[in-house]
Amino acid sequence: MKAKNIIFLFAGCLFSQVCLAQTELKSDLKAFRPAESNQPGKLFPQVNDEGKVRVSLYAPQAAKVQLDLGGKKYEMTKNEEGLWTGESAPQDEGFHYYQLNVDGASIPDPNSRYFYGAGRLGSGIEVPAYDEAFYALQKVPHGMVSENIYYSNLTQTWRRCFIYTPASYYENKNSRFPVLYLQHGSFEDETGWVNQGKANLILDNLIAQNKAKPMIIVTDNGYALKPEATEAPEKGQGISIFEDVLIKEVIPMIDKRFRTLADREHKAIAGLSMGANQTMRIVMKNPDKFAYYGGFSGTSNYPNTDVIDPDVFMEGKFKSGTELNKKLKLLWLGLGTKEPAPFPKSVGAFRAMLDKQGVRYTYYESPKTAHEWLTWRRSLQNFAPLLFR
Amino acid sequence: MKAKNIIFLFAGCLFSQVCLAQTELKSDLKAFRPAESNQPGKLFPQVNDEGKVRVSLYAPQAAKVQLDLGGKKYEMTKNEEGLWTGESAPQDEGFHYYQLNVDGASIPDPNSRYFYGAGRLGSGIEVPAYDEAFYALQKVPHGMVSENIYYSNLTQTWRRCFIYTPASYYENKNSRFPVLYLQHGSFEDETGWVNQGKANLILDNLIAQNKAKPMIIVTDNGYALKPEATEAPEKGQGISIFEDVLIKEVIPMIDKRFRTLADREHKAIAGLSMGANQTMRIVMKNPDKFAYYGGFSGTSNYPNTDVIDPDVFMEGKFKSGTELNKKLKLLWLGLGTKEPAPFPKSVGAFRAMLDKQGVRYTYYESPKTAHEWLTWRRSLQNFAPLLFR
Predict the structure, then answer these.
(1) Can you give the pLDDT at residue B232?
(2) What Pfam families is this protein classified in (chains A, B) (predicted)?
(3) DSSP per residue over A319-352, as a string?
(4) Are residues A108 and A162 in the same domain?
(5) What is the pLDDT at residue A28?
(6) If you measure CA to CA, which chain B residue comes closest to A237?
(7) Chain B residue with minimum CA distance to A137
């Protein structure tokens, strides 16, 4: 046997019937292209220029198959080979969760990658956006994303955070970096900001263009519950101690493991939706720890839309605009123009309070996006360049 | 509004019908327990002490639902609420890929986590093993696993590797570490050794017990193809250049980004199945680069089971046992006792050749496991302690 290059079978189509059927549909690829969110080598799901999503599933004995996307169920149709295909109405640009329904079973699409949202790992579809270059994988220096498992003494559970380190972290092995703590929304987890949010690629691109300072980003899990006390099991259940976990456990761990700049001038905190609410409370209660705040699609008066009384709201933390302006170097808010109730009015009420109190802040609106990941990718894109200046 | 701890809705059961039905089955939890490989909070799939796997799927209109596991399809049955449940025969200890079939559709189980194998992201089930402590998440110092994206000029594609760094990498920020390059098998990818193999936890545990030296582990993607030449598109297709990518691109990148000990005495290479075959070729062709080799369930004569002629095999690289024994500090082979053909005979023929040539090697057999991840976890557990001594 001669030592030579070997032709290895390449991972791909294992189930030949499906492959044959998919090949027949290839002719349509001009209009519909495989989504960026697909598993390697998968031709479906596809997206066209209008943002319509087309899915396929081989299910020869099924009576009814549907595409469940954006709150609507689209009927799919079967060909002679048993391959079902279906198409959605045009979708907003950006990332959306979806699932398939097969004879009443809600299932992940076998062809998509899976993302943690809506409280489970499920399918996602990437609809190309006009400005997608800012979160695309570009030929620029890339940082790394590290998974860090830790035991929390406060929650008495194993927890996990992810740490983005920029490319320059590995260039000069003595340099130190500022840190942005960045939180996900409800029913999502610590994987969201990288998997759906593409925070690493957004920063790689911003840093390569000299638009943002090289920084570390930490994404932790916003669900951190007080352990059930043995004497009174009902007491602990459901009480969030995320703030304590972040301040007392995560930040010291990050400052120990990474070459950080650990003072408040080099520490920022931001979050989306539930994470915006959580991190606003954290920054207001810990002004010695953070100098920068970002709230993406959420404020701490959520879900309230009433006029805010600054004497009462958050124990009067917003009473003195002058004092707040001195302390916080950045108070940044973002929202999508298509967000549903109560977000526009709730964030609106918060902004009205800031205006009345003379609190300096930056407000950004993401065009034509709802309470979804493209709003938050764009928020990060606009927020990160203002940090650590 | 008073600033106080807020009770957040916790991610979990979103689809109430399924949850109700799952609760009814809770009474059986004594015998069947939720698998370690489940998504957070999911009660199914379950495993019992015999290694039987029980799955459930809510599919009220389906006519036929099956559990497809270990090459067999098990019929599932439906209750009045439309919840299907089914049970497998006892399975071998360790990790197995599986899927569900709903009216002819092969789908991932919505309750399991997903693992890249068989050329796609699919469901996996963890059947507890008598020795599972060695790969369990224990209260010991934990290293990190970092995702590294890079552009390969050789393949002209984006590629990815993962890097495990031990806990002590972050203790002394000037210390340098030896590196093990560790490869997956066919139809798997660079995520396999962490997600299915639990290589990070195995090393965390070994290092904490002082059984293995702290080391860096790098897992790359074994599929690296020559780009199709524009003059002759058919020429490049399917020709593996993984060896070149590893030697010329990955190793220099790792030595640049991480604090490695870059000489051959501190570099090991190992792989499983296809990866064993690939890495054996790499170590034999690059004796200046590696001093340690591990082949888990595979040798470079695969799939051949004939007597090996050392004058011809791999260009005579095994002709002189004396020379090889001087060069290689470790030649390590592992195999499961239940591996199917051609592995036992193929590895057997290779060992017979080594014996005949007087090549020193270590041989390990994993009890009662086939060509599966528990064989490879145990191989790593037994191989890693012998490295860098």
Answers:
(1) 53
(2) Esterase (PF00756)
(3) S-HHHHHHH-SEEEEEEETTPPTTHHHHHHHHHH
(4) no
(5) 55
(6) B7
(7) B158
Say how many domains are in chain B.
2
Chain A CB within 8 Å of residue B247 CB: no
Residue B19 has pLDDT above 70, yes or no: no
Domain annotation covers residue A7 = no
Angle, CA A71 vertex, CA A70 and CA A74 arms, to 5°: 85
CATH number at residue B93: 2.60.40.10
Cα-Cα-Cα-Cα dihedral sign, residues B14, B18, B23, B25: negative
CB contact under 8 A, A142 and B120: no
* Residue A118 shares a structural domain with residue A185: no
Of residues A59, A145, A149, nearest to B105 (C-beta): A59
Per-residue tokens: B314: 């791999």
pLDDT over 80 at B13, yes or no: no
pLDDT digits (tens, 9 = 90+) for B341-355: 999 999 999 999 999
Which tens digit of pLDDT belongs to each residue from A196-250?
A: 999 999 999 999 999 999 999 999 999 999 997 545 545 556 899 999 999 999 9
Quickly state the pLDDT bin for A18 (edges 50, 70, 90).
very low
Domain assignment of residue A41, yes or no: yes
Q: Which of A5, A114, A148 is facing B114, going by the closest CB pair?
A: A114
Helix, strand, coil share (%) of chain B residues, nearest 5: 30, 25, 45
- Per-residue pLDDT band at A173 (split at 50, 70, 90): confident
Same domain, A362 and A244: yes
Same domain, B148 and B211: yes
Residues A222, A240: Cα–Cα separation, whole Å: 9
Task: Select the residue of A118, A139, A151 nearest B139 (Cβ to Cβ).
Answer: A151
Closest CA to A254 of A169, A181, A192: A181
pLDDT tens, residue by residue, A139-155: 999 999 999 999 999 99
Assess B58–A contact: CB distance below 8 Å, yes or no. Answer: yes
When the pLDDT of each residue in chain B is averaged and rounded to a whole number, the result is: 92
In whole angstroms, give the CA distance from residue A152 to residue A150. 6
Contacts of A103 in chain B (CB under 8 A): 59-63, 102-103
Please identify, among A128, A153, A176, the residue that sits at the C-terminal boundary of a domain: A128
Residues B106 and B153 in one domain: no
Residue A350's domain comprises: 133-386
> Which pLDDT score is estimated for A17?
43
Question: Would you say residue A158 lies in a domain?
Answer: yes
Whether residue A58 is found in the same domain as residue A151:
no
Mean per-residue pLDDT, B329-335:
98
Nearest-by-Cβ selection for A240 from B5, B121, B240: B5
* Closest among A178, A47, A162 to A116, alpha carbons compared: A162
Q: Is residue A314 part of a domain?
A: yes
Which of B1, B19, B187, B225 should one mutate to test binding to chain A, selecting the residue with the greatest count of A CBs within 10 A? B1
ipTM for the whole predicted complex goes beyond 0.95: no
Judged by CB atoms closer than 8 Å, whether chains meet at A148 and B144 is answered as yes
User: What distance lies between CA B387 and its chain's CA centroid?
Assistant: 19
Q: Do A315 and B114 touch (CB under 8 A)?
A: no
B286 touches chain A (CB under 8 A): no
Contact yes or no for B10 and A225 at CB 8 A? yes
Q: What is the pLDDT of residue A5?
A: 36
Indicate if A283 and A335 belong to the same structural domain.
yes
- With an 8 Å Cβ cutoff, are A103 and B9 in contact? no
Residue pLDDT, tens place only, A262-310: 999 999 999 999 999 999 999 999 999 999 999 999 999 999 999 999 9
pLDDT at residue A232, as a whole number = 53
Cβ–Cβ < 8 Å for A372, A92 = yes
Is B151 in the A-facing interface, judged by CB distances under 8 Å?
yes
- The residue written with tokens 């917003």 in the block is A318
Segment B259-268, tens digit of pLDDT: 999 999 999 9
DSSP-based three-state secondary structure for A284: helix
Across the interface, of A110, A238, A315, the residue whose CB is closest to B2 is A315
CB contacts under 8 A, A 316-355 vs B, are: 317
Verify that A380 and A282 share a domain, yes or no: yes
Q: Which of A104, A257, A277 sits opposite B59 (nearest CB)?
A: A104
Query: Which of A128, A158, A177 is a domain's end point?
Result: A128
B256 touches A at CB < 8 Å: yes
